[in-house]
Amino acid sequence: YDMFVLAFVERLFRASYKKDDIVLGKKLGEGAFGVVYKVSVDKPSAKKRGGDLVLKKATEYGAVEIWMNERVRRACASSCAEYLYGFLENSSKKGSEYWLLWRFEGEATLYDLMQSREFPYNVETLILGEVQDLPKGIERENRIIQTVMRQLLFALDGLHSTGIVHRDIKPQNIIFSEGSKTFKIIDLGAAADLRVGINYIPNEFLLDPRYAAPEQYIMSTQTPSAPSAPVATALSPVLRQLNLPDRFDIYSTGLMFLQMAFPGLRTDSNLIQFNRQLKRCDYDLVAWRKSAEPRASPELRKGFELLDLDGGIGWELLTSMVRYKARQRISAKGALAHPYFDKEGLLALSVMQ
Ligand code: ADP
Ligand code: MG
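^ thats the input. predicted complex w/ magnesium ion below
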């Protein structure tokens, strides 16, 4: 109860925005449930901190997204893009829409960065703020990928510790924050708050099949008792232990790790093909490796080489994330404590010179 009062008071004193304050800029994205724009604010009080913002005009899932962003703002702000304000806008022609505002964190998502031939060196430049004059090779690439993975798992652990499962973790929903020089999570429209059961049963159309764990439908059909309406009936911790819904995000994060390590799996079509092969191997990565490695292209071989560094510690982490059974997947916190992260990451590179 106190938490609700505090949250209400905090929101009263926080900068608020209305439709007329917002000047639309470039369109950044358009999905089935909303449109996203870069915007500026035409309001003297907002000018003090300055900078561009991001506006999402959301339809169906706007209320859920506002709820999740308010929770994140109070409980694990550094995990996600900085959320500023959300409101219901009734005056629009299409009926009512939810308008949500965030700080514009930066130009590039992990997806954009991975599409470049320079990846992962383009990320190294962003994080260190300078170009490193060092020989390129898998060891250096491994350190960069390790740094990215640590940042992703740190952000994810923040969400999961708060009781939020994202369910749409993919490179398109990871933004590089130029301010903090770290990757942050965005797009909480498909997220679930396990403490109160908000949006616990996902709309299947919200899930991206390219990154979804195999239990995607199990979650929506085999837990019929889980509340779907925003009512404060806390989901039983016992049920949560059995289902481990946070491991859904771990699987998706494992696929991103895979795409970072294997240049050949960074395109959509190759990822879809990989998913088909993995399914044929009953989601057993070791079996997939046995079938794929003998006829591997040099690009594929490079991924195995990278993950085999330091006694195969990267491969060990990957295989503990991408597993058929949610229960057997490592947690975000567990992954952060994995020996893959024992070596110093990217920052050690600048000291090496
Ligand atoms: P959707 O996927 O539902 O269209 P997202 O919330 O993922 O909406 O936003 C769409 C795109 O807008 C993102 O992929 C990203 O390129 C950009 N974007 C979203 N939020 C931010 C932000 N805070 N800062 C910079 N760019 C953002
Ligand atoms: Mg998105």
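Residues 28-29, 31, 34, 36, 54, 56, 81, 102, 104-106, 109, 172-173, 175, 186-187, 189 surround adenosine-5'-diphosphate (ligand 1) (CB under 6 Å).
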